[in-house]
Specification:
With 326 residues, this protein is an alpha/beta fold. The chain is 42% helix and 17% strand.
Amino acid sequence: MRVLITGGCGFIGSNFIRMALSQRPSWDIVNLDALTYAGNPANLADVEAHPRYRFLHGDLRDASLVTRVIETHPPELVIHFAAESHVDRSIAGPLPFMQTNVMGTAHLLDALHRQRQGRLVHISTDEVYGPLALDAEAVTEEAPLKPSSPYAASKAAADLQVLAYARTYGLQAMILRGSNNYGPFQYPEKLIPLMTVKAMQGQELPLYGDGLQRRDWLHVDDFCRGILAATDHGRWGATYNLGGGNERSNLEIVTRILRTMNRSEESIRLVADRPGHDRRYAIDSTLAKKELGWTPQRNFEQGLEDTIRWYLDHKQWWKSAFTQEG
């Protein structure tokens, strides 16, 4: 079966491709990636010669290119990771997020519809639900979308496009909304790798506001297992929340990183909060557990320690990533 992966050189996409090649021997994977700063070919250096893997350099913002890829490599399944994903960058410059996440998704959907090709698994985020009160129950898939940041708004718009194509054109599609992923190969602008790298370099660790914003953490391997489970057991037309069940404050995460690395907590520096900073996210994964047979397997404390160790052992990787962006 030919499977088209968009954004496969990014953090989650590269981890997923590696897992899929190992666990799905019938899959031939085509990876379409624009190779932005966060899309690093080195993330898949160990599989680039794999006989069931092929890389295509291309940008979803190019509608004609997307059409050509669908025509020349007609997929039975598409897993759509490609996205601009960093909230801070979306606040500083929202237009690239609209161009990639909204228009890029539109180009992909249009090409699939016109060529009558494939089924689509669209990778989304818990941020589309917006902020949740500290005493509120975790949100289900039926909760309204209330995005706060330009990033979250662009992902919500992409989700709605997918649902519209499913309802109007009968496209077989499903949406997976994950909580905060962490693990190896994550570009060091997100909280865990950023703070780990700064601690390694003996720098101050800046935390927004009071640092008590709460996020639910999910190891990337568990998320990838959830995606595979969805391709096997998911209902087309459905949306599934995949949460880790590991709510922690940002301050707790950073403190744990410093303790693991035997660094002083005095290096934490509270800075002015960012605009529209959501206080808490938490998603209810009951539906995924019931219908997909999926539950997270990685213990958070051990997973975090393993992730910190990975960055300590792969200094050249993150140094090269910074050089590539610069």
